[in-house]
Design goal:
The complex is a heterodimer of chains A (307) and B (243).
Chain A (H helix, E strand, L loop, with lengths): L1 E9 L4 E10 L4 E5 L6 H8 L7 E6 L2 E2 L4 H7 E4 L11 H11 L4 H14 L15 H13 L5 E5 L7 H14 L4 E6 L2 H7 L2 E6 L2 E6 L1 H6 L7 E5 L5 H5 L4 E7 L4 E6 L6 H11 L3 E6 L4 H13 L1
Helix pairs in contact in A: 3-4, 4-5
Chain B lengths: L3 H12 L4 H20 L11 H5 L1 H13 L1 H9 L1 H7 L4 H21 L2 H10 L4 H28 L3 H17 L3 H6 L5 H9 L2 H9 L5 H25 L3
Helix pairs in contact in B: 1-7, 2-4, 4-9, 4-10, 5-9, 7-9, 7-14, 9-10, 9-13, 9-14
Classes of the chains: A alpha/beta (307), B mainly alpha (243).
Chain lengths: 307, 243
């Protein structure tokens, strides 16, 4: 378990992390969300023992990050933002160095490196120096380094930033495969990623906790939660839709030639809308129920904070 | 300190990852030859010792040693790999010491490659080889002091060129602090301060050791100087790592 208690980091000019407290249990994949400069990276840097908190503390599997830093660091696999590596080393040399630092020698070192190389498909570039690798490969080297010692806690700062869609998909698959009975904290500002891999999402802005829940719970805060979007062949009667029970309003999307019927909080309106379509005999080309739009929740949460 | 050898090996290998190390060693060997034979007049002195060789080391090191030290921390901070290093289960002391020892070993290797000098004086006459060994040891200690200063300056600056210039300036201060012109400029100061400044100088200490005289106080001077600058490095790394 990771326990963060009143974690605060002040720099000369501003407060980057402001009295943050939450817990993460084994088996959870925590998506750490927030706009740029929200304090995500600073929090991760404190969790990994790189930065000392101004006040408050955190413990990793019971080891305090300030008083038992080395013990805590042994439990963590960390991918810093931008996946910095020793650029002049070869992939093999670099991973062997990490394995040795993690205390593996000889046969076990070899085996650990081989396994990480296999998991991230680095076999083809083992002999190349890291500076000659593409961005995707560099990121994978960073991930290989983080998972090499099979840590109980994985902290990944924007692991898919700058990767192409295929590589993103691959990294997400990897995170999910690693996540079993581990603690994974992933920071991101890509919201689709949260729905794709996370079991829990924490939103922060200006260093403060704004929301904490499963991605579904967050989505249900959206005004688009349970909304129904329809694309009709001809113009549809908006007044009739608006008059249905449980409907909060109707939005016209000019570009898609569609209507979005919004539901009042807690209401399910799909049966009513469907009934109306059948009753009037409308020709409807598309009909979707929305789960809610995370980006909209994210914007309203973080913008509300800025004002 | 179990991880110290791992840091040491990586750091030492990284010197040889680029041709820079070989170029450096070549320049060092050529320059020390030029200084010894042309400026130092080894032949003209008609003495079978290496005084002309060692005499120039403080000046030769002034520019060459900061060049070895400048990348130690500046490079890590620039590339961001310091975040990786400091979040691995390694103590600060291991990191600082491992890096310093690697640079010191590299300097030692360059120094050992000047062995043809020893062969030359042994061919020409019958030198005191014990004194020569002491001289080498003193020169290595001197290089270590420069390196410890350079390592601190490298932790201070993110840019290697700035780290180099800072290190050269600081080492220069430690060389000239024993010079009459510096002491004259400080003539208003109380005697104990003058003595303190004068006793900080590399030159007087190194002079004695390079002549084959090992005084415990001189040894202690170099060792404590290195220790103090490495401790300062650890503090600076901590303060500056996140910038």
């Amino acid at each position: 378990m990771i326990e963060i208690r009143n974690l605060t980091k002040r720099f000369a000019q501003h407060t980057a992390v402001d009295n943050l407290s939450f817990r993460v249990q084994a088996g959870e994949v925590l998506g750490f969300l927030g706009p740029n400069g929200a304090g995500k990276s600073t929090t991760m840097k404190m969790l990994t023992g790189f930065l000392a908190p101004t006040s408050g503390t955190a413990s990793i599997l019971g080891f305090d990050i300030q008083t038992q830093t080395l013990e805590a660091q042994r439990q963590i696999g960390y991918l810093p933002e931008g996946a910095p590596c020793y650029a002049d080393m070869t992939v093999r040399g670099f991973l062997e160095f990490i394995a040795e630092i993690r205390g593996f020698r000889r046969a076990e070192k070899k085996q650990r490196v081989e396994r990480a190389v296999e998991q991230l498909e680095l076999g083809k570039v083992l002999g190349q120096s890291i500076e000659t690798l593409s961005k995707g490969f560099k990121r994978r080297v960073g991930l290989a380094q983080a998972i090499l010692h099979d840590p109980q806690v994985l902290i990944l700062d924007e692991p898919t930033d700058g990767l192409d869609p295929n590589q993103k998909h691959q990294v997400r698959g990897l995170i999910q495969s690693l996540a079993r009975d581990k603690i994974v904290i992933v920071s991101t500002h890509i919201l689709e990623e949260v729905s794709a891999v996370c079991t829990r999402a924490v939103v922060i802005a200006q260093g403060r906790l704004l929301a904490d829940g499963t991605p579904l719970e967050l989505e249900s805060r959206s005004r688009y939660h349970q909304a129904v979007t329809l694309v009709g062949s001809e113009a549809l009667d908006q007044e009739a839709l608006r008059a249905l029970p449980g409907v909060a309003g109707v939005e016209v999307n000019e570009r898609e030639h569609s209507l979005t019927v919004l539901a009042e909080p807690g209401q399910v309106i799909f049966p009513q809308v469907n009934g109306l379509i059948a009753e009037r005999g409308w020709q409807v080309k598309e009909l979707n129920v929305e789960r809610g739009r995370l980006d909209e929740v994210f914007r309203s949460l973080t913008r509300g904070e800025m004002v | 300190m179990t991880q110290l050898p791992v840091i040491f090996r990586r750091e030492l290998a990284s010197y040889f990852a680029t041709p820079l190390a070989y170029v450096f060693i070549l320049i060092f060997l050529v320059l020390s030859g030029v200084f010894t034979f042309y400026l130092g007049g080894l032949y003209e002195s008609n003495q079978a010792d290496l005084a002309p060789f060692f005499n120039f080391h403080p000046w030769l090191y002034l520019f060459l040693v900061p060049a070895i030290a400048m990348r130690l921390w500046a490079e890590e901070r620039k590339s961001g790999s310091i975040e990786l290093l400091m979040t691995l289960p390694v103590t600060r002391a291991e990191a600082v010491l491992g890096k310093f020892l690697a640079a010191w070993a590299f300097a030692g290797l360059a120094l050992l490659l000047t062995f043809p000098m020893v062969l030359t004086v042994n061919y020409l006459g019958e030198p005191d080889n014990g004194a020569i060994a002491t001289g080498y040891f003193g020169s290595w200690l001197l290089a270590g002091s420069y390196l410890a200063i350079g390592s601190c300056m490298s932790a201070l600056a993110k840019n290697q060129v700035i780290a180099f210039i800072l290190a050269v300036s600081m080492c220069f201060l430690f060389i000239v602090s024993g010079f009459p012109m510096v002491l004259d400029a400080l003539s208003w100061a109380p005697q104990w301060l003058l003595d303190a400044v004068a006793s900080l100088s590399f030159l007087t200490r190194f002079d004695a050791i390079s002549k084959g005289v090992i005084d415990l106080r001189d040894l202690l001077y170099f060792v404590s100087l290195i220790a103090a600058w490495l401790a300062a490095t650890a503090v600076v790394v901590d303060l500056k790592k996140a910038d």
